[in-house]
Known about the structure:
4 strands, four-stranded antiparallel β-sheet, 39% helix, flat
Amino acid sequence: FLGEAAPAPTAVASPCWWITMALTNVLPQLALLQVMKLLDHYCLDVVRCHLDVVDDPNNGNITLLRVLAEPPQDEKWQTLEGWDKLKGYLKRLKWLDSRVTNLALDKHPWMEISQAEVVLGLAA
């Protein structure tokens, strides 16, 4: 899911990481928007992004998304601790309602995504 450290472009001093996702039957623009919002929430700078949609005759389509992200100069991004939490949220992002991401990432940035799910589940 998370790739190896890629050499940084000349304008970037710290190492970057490729984040690769394959999502089936999603709207590509919505998937890209949700991933960008999540990366912005974790203060990762997007250096480059590739988005491809491949037709799968038996199952609809597959959206391939690759993002070259530069992590902040924080100790947790130098180990797997920060990446593991982000990886877990990226895996679940396809199934998250937009109200959950709006609540956790826009309206109340201190709130975890799992907490926003519970709040909206109890409010329904």
